[in-house]
Design a protein that fits this description.
Elements (H helix, E strand, L loop, with lengths): L1 H29 L4 H26 L3 H26 L2 E2 L5 H21 L1 E2 L1 H24 L3 H13 L7 H34 L3 H13 L1 H12 L3 H26 L2 E2 L2 H25 L1 E2 L1 H23 L1
Antiparallel strand pairs: 1-4, 2-3
Helix pairs in contact: 1-2, 1-7, 2-3, 2-6, 2-7, 2-10, 3-8, 3-9, 3-10, 3-11, 3-12, 4-10, 4-11, 5-6, 5-10, 7-8, 9-10
Length: 321
């Protein structure tokens, strides 16, 4: 029964998240909001909604291992599994304008998270700082990208992303219904997913952290996986890189920030002993590939995926001990 609840919660979370994005986009279109703004805000937020709701529900249910583990595990999976897999499909060029700025922000956010993990707590004031940092980063990125000629590619991509969502003739009230229904669905789906994950951890005799950094993290990262694989198949693998970097920044600054504001967290020691350093290593490897190699080729992608397989093996060994 717990497996049914886990799968049902994950499916509901993903489907409802899609409905929420489609509904909010329909409402935004009815009010004349530009596709660029829709792409940069509603669509981008929608792909990270599963992680946000799962971590919030975990914090409210008193499962910090899942709340923090979901973010740390998602960042690891995004780099090693998702970006590595995308690079195997099609080599990723790391030449997009603004990429160095974004990877620097990711590095700073990762260091901040490591510091909080070492401290062992994620207090409300730290959550406020993380969210303010996200707002500052997003605002500055929008301003800089609008000023730079090279930002035309970004604007084109974000516009195409928003316009790729079919209107479905929802109308204003149809859009509102999709939005409200989607919001209720993601809340319920996240609750089912987290409750099932807690029961699963207890029945398997493993920590909530292991479930959080593995099953929950991979499940909530499915939107990023779909986006990156589709981009790679279309030979637009640079989109996959931007998707992963942006998602990882939002995971730390936005998801952990909001979660800490709603419910301050105690970080499980297990994350400090293992997962935080894997996340740091994956982030350093990504930054090195971007800064030094200027690309992530198939060989590097295979190394990334292989490293993720080793990490999963370590988790399995820890669960079996």
């Amino acid at each position: 029964m717990v497996y049914v609840e886990l799968i049902a919660g994950l499916i509901l979370l993903l489907v409802a998240g899609d409905l929420l994005v489609r509904g909010s986009v329909a409402v935004a279109r009815r009010f004349g909001v530009s596709p660029l703004v829709i792409g940069l805000t509603l669509v981008g937020f929608g792909t990270s909604l599963p992680e946000l709701m799962a971590s919030l529900q975990a914090a409210l249910l008193g499962a910090p291992g899942i709340a923090v583990g979901n973010v740390v595990g998602s960042n690891i999976a995004n780099i090693l599994l998702i970006l590595g897999g995308a690079a195997i499909i099609a080599p990723v060029a790391a030449t997009a304008k603004g990429l160095h700025r974004d990877t620097l922000v990711l590095a700073l956010a990762t260091v901040a998270l490591i510091a909080l993990v070492i401290a062992g707590v994620l207090p409300r004031w730290a959550g406020v700082i993380l969210v303010l940092a996200l707002i500052a980063y997003t605002g500055s990125a929008l301003v800089l990208d609008r000023r730079e000629q090279a930002s035309a590619a970004l604007r084109e991509h974000e516009t195409e992303t928003a316009e790729a969502i079919p209107p479905a003739n929802l109308g204003l009230w149809g859009g509102v219904a999709f939005t409200v229904g989607g919001l209720l669905g993601v809340v319920l789906g996240a609750r089912l997913l987290v409750e099932a994950a807690v029961v699963l951890a207890q029945s398997w005799g493993v920590s909530e952290t292991i479930i959080g950094v593995s099953i929950v993290a991979i499940g909530t990262s499915l939107p990023e996986l779909a986006t990156s694989v589709i981009a790679a198949l279309k030979k637009e693998s640079d989109v996959a890189l931007g998707n992963v970097v942006g998602s990882n920044i939002f995971n730390i600054l936005g998801i952990l920030g909001v979660t800490a504001i709603v419910s301050p967290l105690t970080v499980p020691a297990e994350i400090l002993q293992r997962d935080a350093w894997v996340m740091l290593g994956a982030t350093v490897a990504l930054i090195a590939a971007v800064m030094l190699l200027r690309r992530i080729g198939r060989a590097t992608g295979a190394v990334f995926v292989g490293a993720y397989a080793v990490y999963v093996g370590v988790l399995v060994a820890a669960a079996s001990a």
